[in-house]
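Pilot study result, target chain (1631 residues):
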Amino acid sequence: MEEPTTLVSDEDLVDSLPAIDDERIQLEDPEFETDPFLLGFEDTIRLGCCCPAKEEEVTTEKTKKTTTRDRVQAFHLRKSLNLLDKLHEEKDLFIQKTRGELRVCHQRMDLLTKQQESLAAEIAAEREANNMAALGRLQAASRRLHTELENEKDLQSKITAMLKDSENAMWHIEIQKGQFEDVRKRNEEEAEARLRSLEIHAAQQLQKEKETLEKVERNRLLRARKSLHVQKELGLRHQKLVEDAQRNHKIAVKFLKASLGRVREQEQKEEMESRKHMKRRMDAVLALKNNITASRETLKKFQAWGQSRAEVAKQKALTEKEAILAQGGDAFKHLFHQRRHQELEAQKRAFEEDQKLRKQEIVSRILKEEAEEEHRKKRQQQPSKTTDQWTLRDKTWKYISDFCEGKTAITTNHLLENEMALHPKPSCLLKVISSESMQMDLGSISTEEEILAEPDIPGLWSKDYKSYQVSKEDMERKPVGGTKMDKDILARTMEQLRSGVVHKQVVSGREFKGRPFNSKPEVIHFKDFDIGKVYKKKITLINATYTINYCKLVGVEESLKDFIHIDFDPPGPMSAGMSCEVLVTFKPMINKDLEGNVSFLAQTGGFSVPLKCSTKKCSLSLDKELIDFGSYVVGETTSRIITLTNVGGLGTRFKFLLDSEFFEMEEHQPIMKMSSVFTYEDKSLYEKIINSLSEQQLDVDGSSPLDIPSRKESEKLDEAEVTAVASAMTMVPSEEQAEITLGEVTEGEIGPFSSIKVPIIFNPVIPGEVQTKFKVMFKNSQCPTLYFRATGIAVDVPVWVPRATVDLKICMYDRLYQDSITVHTRSKAALRLKFEVCKELRGHIELLPETGYIQAQSSYSVQLKFLPRYSLPEDAGKYFDQDSRVLEAPMTIWVADQIKPVGFTVQAIVTTSDLEISPLEISFGYCTIYEAIRTEISLSNLSLLPQEFGFVGLPKYVDIQPNDGFGTILPLETLQLDVIFQPIKAKEYRFELVCKSEINRCFKVSCQAVGVHPPLELSHYQIKFSATALYGTTVSTLYVINSHLSMNKLTHSLPRIGSEEATPVGPTSFEFLVPPNSPITISPSVGTVLPGKRCLVQVAFQPVLPHEIILEEAIHILNKETETKLFRKETTQRKEQWKQSLPVVRVHNRDRPTRASTPHTQELQRQELSASSNEYQAAQATLARTFQGKFDRFVVPCVIASGDIKDRKASEPLSFSPYNTLYLELWCPVVAPSIVVTSNEGKTVVNFGDIAVGHRGIRKITLQNISPEDLDLEFSVLNPHGPFVLLNPSRKLCSGETQTLVLSFSPHESILAQETLDIISKRGTLTLTLTGTGVASMITCSIEGNILNMGYVLARESVSINFKLQNESSLPIKFWMRLESLSKKRAETRQQLPKFLTSHEQRTEIVGTQNHNGQSVFSVVPVEGLMVPGKAHEFTITFSPDHESLYFSDLLQVVLFEKKVSHQILLKGAAREHMMFVEGGDPLDVPVESLTVIPAFDPEHREARSPPPEAEEMKPILVTLNYVQFDTDIPTPPATRELQVGCIRTTQPSPRKTVEFSLDSIPWLQHKGFSIEPSRGSVERGQTKTISISWVPPADFDPDHPLMVSTLLQLRGDVKETYKVIFVAYVVAGL
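Predicted structure:
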């Protein structure tokens, strides 16, 4: 045992405690500083010693204020006392614990001593038995016990020393506590004094508050009195205002009545005038009807004459055909030529007639214009006379009235034209105009309203105007109908157009047949319309074809054109299933039913929509045709009600009367019905009719084009008859009084859609049957007369039974039923009665007494007993109905001195009392003692009466629910009862269930089962999870217990199956079979339990939304988005199509592919959607937010097998018994999550996307608490070394509040990272999945080697080179281009020594020679920007030197994201003053310019300082050649070097286009072993030429002395330059 850490010295323990700060103490002395509390007990003792002195000071200065130092000292004192108490408690606890450990140590030592003694005895016994193996084992155990005993002794000594030290420390603490006892008492007294002062202060404060409260109460009473006074004044003022208003109202009502009276008088006058006007119009229409009838007869004659002419022509053609055939000719050819000749003749005559008509039309137009001009001149002279002339409507009405009266209307064309053009006056126009009433010259009618004195627009009225004359050439240029060729072309074109309009529609090999468009509604029906009103209805046409179709309005039938107007805007191409709207406007002008069709034309054929217009009608009916009053005694009165119902939209007057009476209804109707006249107010249609009349000319034979519509309209008028004024109403009353009469209500008005009840009264006077017929007549002649009958029987006997039928209701077999029958008499003498039952039912019914006397004018009671036997159906015979179980038994009462007996009927429904149980045998099978099996049985009531039932005598292991097997079952009802069987031990069960009814009938059910005692048991068989939020987790635990330890059946029951053998003792395995796709997880699901042991099992419940439901919601969201896009697209296409012409639209739509949906579309969408898709996550969040909660119940079976799962082979299953199965019931309530994500469409997956390595991405997640309570939040710990960080964790989220969490993602390498963040609350856990991808920025450069040589450039000129950077990553990368010469470190570098002063090894400079003008010699464009993923970005580097140098250089750095250097490109370049250059050879100078060299910038200084040509300085070029000589016989290759001669490309004008070079002393060099090719040549601009130099040692070469020769290289360009080339050759030995 280790020594506890608290076992230290007292002083060290006190010193180790931290200082305690009290924020409530505020020091008043600014110079005072509170040192940390001196935690040594010496200081405490010092404080205690000072207490007597301080007590004296306190007593002398009680009235003074306590200083800050005293308060601090008191605080430290209290703290020391508390610390001592705490140390005392800890030491006391530690001492007790140590003593307990010492006691345990003593016990362990005693035990070890006893074990040693027993081992010593066993060792002696084994030594005597010479059992060396056991002896060695026992000796080893003895040594082990000895070692343990020694360890225990050491431990005991340590614990004893520790206990002693602790007791010493405890005594020391108690001594110090005793020293501080006085201080403690003084502190307690001070605390009591402070408490008393606080109580005094509280009492004073309470007194002040009471005074304040009394003052407030007085103020409240004053305010209340004031408010009552104000309310009283307001009430008086309001009463006065009300009286004034009532007085003003009476005055207003008086004036209003007077005004209404005047208005009613004016309305009556207008009504009288309108009736007079209607009468005149009706007379005109009657005359018009007669004319139409005459014209119809004339038309019939013409039709008959035309038919006879056709028959004669047909007969003549047959005769000619027979004659030609008889002569042997070709009859067909002859008839064809003859028909052709007739057609030509007809065309010729038609052409001549058309020419005549055109000439007449032109001449009439010219004459008309001349007449108008003359008339206009006259009107201008007399403008005032226009007000005295008649209008066109008045003249038309005058003409019709004169014609009807027989007068002749003789007017000239000019007069009629003037009269119709003047005096516009609103009036009514007849809709129907016959052709006979318009035989005048209709061309003379003009619609011009000649009101103005001067024309508004000068033109035809001017004096200089000459009418247009049609030339003869134009008249005879071309016939009216066109030539024959034109007609043929027109016919072919029309045939092609007609064939193109309608064609078949074939989609996917299927031809569409049927109606192309469906109409909603299918019939356009205008019901109960009124004349003069306008009715509108919308119908929807839906494309029912397979693909795109068109719809065009053809029109309505000719008979409906005047009333129906169709507003239809052709929608263009319509996809399958699309719809368009059609507005149908109906303006009735005649009171007549109309029927017709609205025709449309589609691409696949025509179709029509039926149209009906129904007038208001009376639809009258009676609820019954026969009223049967039954039997009533003479003198009684009864009544029945008959209902007259009108389901039509028109009301009428009715009259109930006897069938024998005559009655004529007076009709107060106008002379003419509204159906024959139109009240036409539409001026535009009026002008249209007049214009059509004025533009038409009469034919030669007197017929007009208006005859056809006038005939059709005349047919409409024939349907409506003109009714005459009815005669006065007469009524013939009946002479004799009837027993069945009508009530008070016999006539009146019945409105539309209403009903009226009329009473029929039966007052029998004479015994016998009475029958009376009635009829109902109506004022509306279209309503037929209705008839009905009323019958009744009058009875007059001295003895009667009030209840002619004794109804015993429903009766059961073998049950007694009784009733009392009362017999009455109206006789004034006593009568003897005998009661008789029919012989078939005497065994079932009995009347007691059988004989009796009834006193005068009194009653007599008879007892009826009914006891139905099961033989009743056979005994009753005809009186019993087997199907309905109704018994009707006639009973007879014989009265003395009366031949006719009095009968009554006993009626009853006889039913059985059986209860049927199904099934009659129940087998529960195998059931463990830890569970219960439930099965259902059906209990049916075969009776027609409810019965009470109950299952009695149930065993203890059986239960029946509901209500423990008791209840009431209704007639013919079937109840489902649950029989629950739970065995108490393992055996075979056989028992019966007994059900008793209320009449003590028993019904039995036999049951059998086998009880099973499994070897394992569960600690809980039912787990009720707490309400778990969606996607949350709830865990519960249980144990699998193996309590089977022995096979002794006397101590406990052995596990067995029924009566089989018991299960042996041993390890037993189990396995939980979790249902698939369930939110249940059991761990471990498989295991083995040893005897007497138990296994812990965890059951986790994690509810989730089903995958299929989420898929359906995701598909719904996807379809909704698709429909929105398609709708927008179609809307855009429609707008574009409307801008184009219709033929173009048709062409485009034919080429457009159909959007027919296939049945695989949804399945494809299901396959495309995955759990990580945005649609899936959005659907999941939507469903989780709208989740309403649910409750699931799962039953998990646990199978059991003997043996250990470790002993079985890998593929060998355990032998689980199907009967040894335990069942675990889980109740799983699921609730909506308390915390939801409101941002990012509710998704719980936070995807940071691609973030560059080294950078940070921020995402904000908004959470909302949708639960009704505040929640404390806890967050799971993210990986501290991971890339995800929660920046603002919150500890509380109030109800309904939203908070935003800020998450960051900072990848350190290129990986795909994912973590989960759990937000834990007491109502559930919300899991956020954090994902992100760290992407390394990968950029490739098109420059190889990272060195870019710009070559040679003329000074003060520039050259540019392009290169590309390719972004190979998936992120856009921001870049910067930096030159080393422009960096900040460049200034520091320049402060150092020049590099040419250092050794060659120490030279590391990158930036070489720069321009003298201060500008950078190298520049790059662009300097910064953004590189798109997967694309290349082009850069341009420009080299612009301002002086000659061979060592221009700089470093270009590609910096990404302002921190990372991706590429470093070394830039090099050289500049010359002239166009030629030579490169190659060994370096002879340093790459840094001297500070003493100051070049001249202007050309004048350069020319002044340039040496003369003869003094031109030669530039040296050193070429070193090393000849490697090998010792072998292998031939040695020559040493080679190269020089480059180049010509710089320039934009400056130069006389020389090339550079020429030449080497001197070539033969001498060859003699020395040198070979130079070429020795001379020329170089074009922008080109270089290589001079190859090779050397082979000559025969006289001394290897110890290197060869050195020189030659001159001359270059000629814009200037001449001479170079001295020095060749140094060595011979080097090869390895």
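One observation from the pilot: The chain is about 30% helix and 30% strand. A full batch analysis is planned for the follow-on phase.
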